[in-house]
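Risk register update: the risk of archive-format incompatibility is retired. Evidence:
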Amino acid sequence: MKRKIIFLVFSVLFFLKTNAQCAMCRAVLESGEDQSAAEGINDGIVFLMAIPYILVAVIGFIIYKKFSGPNKSE
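Archived output:
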């Protein structure tokens, strides 16, 4: 169990450090002098990308708990 928690924390930290910009967005944003806009766009992309993964994880956890509960009758 402890190994799974460590893996989860490492995955989340790694996920937050990624650069999620596509090549076109990066080229347009790096050509300007305002790098704070590029960082803001990158953060927005990461947050938008995280929502589907969180939803799938929650649904998977609910299904796992439902089918592996202690009151399973067999």
